[in-house]
Amino acid sequence: MFRIFVLLLVIALPASAQSVSGFADVTDGDTLQVGGVKVRLAGIDAPERHQLCGTSTCGIAATQTLVALIGNDTITCVLNGGRTYDRIAGTCSTPRVADLGRAMVMSGYAMDEPRYPPDYTFETQQAARSGHGMWVDPAQPAWVWRAAQTSSTTTPRDSDCAIRGNISANGRIYHVPGSQYYDRTSINASERWFCSVAEAEAAGWRAPR
């Protein structure tokens, strides 16, 4: 999790509207915590942290983009009452950015989520045409990527290919059997197994530091 600050104020508004304000912790490109409330930016879907777009780590880049958009500013999220898992949907702003969801789409690191408002279809089309962010490489909607994932597995493709290639905020790192983080490392569909250190390094992975 990328920490910005953790001093928050919850503001209760009448009727159906509620908002939370304060400093935020960014979880990924469309999720943050404000005032102890986990908020999903309404109307968008950003790449998952481990998602690749072509060869680029667009999920990590999306997270870093949201962190940069917020900076050290306070944030206000007007909650719409919708829920996705343990998150409440909301439209969020800072003194410098009127709509963080829209800004994420325009940056090229999020798409319109067609099932939920607001509608950012036009902004998504603009970003795609300009080739910003994840649109530099073939961009797969995050909901399609999630649907394609299987549960994390600890079984390599064959018994001689047991080196785990993991993607994290620190980059592409390989873990050999018996190393410090090997047993903690799981592999999803964007990551891979290697049969040798040479193979891993040739593919762009590195040893942990």
UniProtKB/TrEMBL annotation:
Origin superkingdom: Bacteria
SMART domains: SNc
InterPro entries, sorted: SNase_OB-fold_sf (IPR035437), Staphylococal_nuclease_OB-fold (IPR016071)
Sorted UniProt keywords: Signal
Domain TNase-like intervals: 17-137
Signal sequence, start to end: 1-17
Keyword Signal: yes
Name of the protein this chain belongs to: Thermonuclease family protein
Organism of this sequence: Pontivivens nitratireducens
